[in-house]
Prior knowledge:
It is a single chain. This protein is mainly α. The protein folds into two domains: 1-64, no CATH class; 65-128. The chain has four helices and no strands. It has helices at 2-21, 24-63, 66-104, 111-120. The mean pLDDT is 82.
Amino acid sequence: MLIIIGVPVLVILLGLGYYFLGDRLTVLLSTILILLGNIQGMCILVLLLAYGLAFLPIKTWKRTNIEAVMYEHLLGAQSCYEEYRDARLEYLQEVSKCRDLATNYRTGENAVFLDTLVEEIPKNDLDG
């Protein structure tokens, strides 16, 4: 319905413009068409960006798998704990060997070295 009314009105306006403006009408029409094309492109861009900026974070948040991220971090924490436990066990074994050396293998020649070793060995374990 709107096209049926709009096309004759547009033809009449173009005829009047050509009659009154003559040569300048082509320059004016090309300028108007370029402006309308830019306006249409900007409107489409604004609509698409507005939709994307509004709904992209929501869709991204809904698609993330929180459980998988948490499980990944827990696996990393568990491997760190296992490394800590192994290092602590190795440390305690070495301290035990040093204490054994200091008590069982003291001679006149190595007494100075074993005294230094005993001073360096912690009195308590790692926890204090």
